[in-house]
What does this fold into?
Amino acid sequence: MKTNPSQDFVPISEIREGIMILKDGSMRAVVLATSINFALKSTEEQESVIYQFQNFLNSLDFTVQIYVQSRKLDIRPYVALLEDRLRAQTSDLMKIQISEYIMFIKGLTEGSSIMTKSFFLTVPYAPTLNAGRNLSNLLKKKDDITNQKNKNDDFEEVKNQIEQRISVVEQGLSRCGVKIARLGSEELVELFYRIFNPGDAEKPIKM
It folds into this structure.
């Protein structure tokens, strides 16, 4: 029985300069957002955050997708770092303290599932091309100089449009106390690798 390669089920055709180019010709950029501790805020602060977030959503004239990724925290790199510090210690007192701390960390994490959450927003853009030009065709590698120039011009136009939308998202979320960082090409590849390979060692993406 013939099976299709996994790439056939991934709608991404190319990742270029931090922008995902989908197989249908549309584009996506992804930003990583910080979180806020809503429960620790006062009632007035909570109402302000809700009001600002409502204003942010109402101000958008394009769709955004919010994706929350929950992963079990992999504490092993931190424990390995502590063990390196333990071996480097010359003070018997510090060795005892670090050893007890390592045992505490291991016991804490082994007895419960500590989760880490990452918050992403996907910013889309579907370019409209003139004269029946098809973006998916222009994005294919061609030797023709004119087509290559059109490809680069169209991509730069799309890139500018997406950056403007990201700026709108950044301004709206900053009023809620949330900061964002745009993912580059390497971060996007890493993100989707983790999505399709959930069994691999996990660690949070750093801002």
Summary: The radius of gyration is 23 Å. The chain is about 45% helix and 20% strand.
